[in-house]
Write a structure and sequence with these properties.
The protein has 161 residues and is of the alpha+beta class. The protein contains three helices and six strands; from the N terminus they run αααββββββ. Helix 2 packs antiparallel against helix 3.
């Protein structure tokens, strides 16, 4: 059984070229003006697509961050409980080992504690104020955390004034 093969010559012009040529033939505008219109449309479409890619990447990063914060929330609660236990049992060697492991795991995920050495109204949530005459942090009720430098959970403190 013989099969017949038919070879056809392919047109090297693109679909856009054909469309531009048809537009030029139908338009009363000069060829250069029509070509400029097509270039303008191309550049705008390219810019729109580039903006879409950036927006999609940003949304993806935000989704990952939100998922990360939700999943790490329980570990942060555990870290806070360990901090409270350490305040009550400062000499427990086993507790210190567990705390160090939790801190190492948190740092590997880009999570840092918010420092509570000095009061900062933008970073600290004041639960109670005690009048003592000097302005300083008396106690830390709950630790605060940053994820990649952005505050995620604010520390809850007792402040003296």
């Amino acid at each position: 059984m013989k099969t017949k093969t038919k070879t056809t010559e392919t047109n090297t012009s693109t679909v856009e070229d054909v469309t531009i040529e048809k537009t030029i033939k139908r338009s009363s505008k000069p060829k250069k003006v029509v070509e400029e219109d097509w270039k303008d449309k191309y550049y705008r479409l390219y810019a729109d697509f580039d903006n879409y890619k950036r927006r999609a990447q940003k949304e993806k990063e935000e989704l990952v961050l939100n998922t990360k914060t939700k999943s790490l929330s329980t570990i942060l609660d555990l870290d806070n409980d360990l901090y409270i236990a350490k305040k009550n049992m400062p000499d427990s060697e086993g507790l210190n080992l567990i705390i160090n492991k939790v801190h190492t795991a948190l740092k590997s995920q880009g999570i840092e504690e918010i420092q509570t050495d000095e009061y900062d109204s933008d970073l600290h949530e004041v639960i109670s104020i005690i009048e003592t005459g000097e302005s300083k942090i008396i106690d830390i009720v709950s630790k605060g955390y940053k994820i990649n430098g952005k505050p995620f959970r604010y520390p809850k403190i007792i402040l003296s004034k």
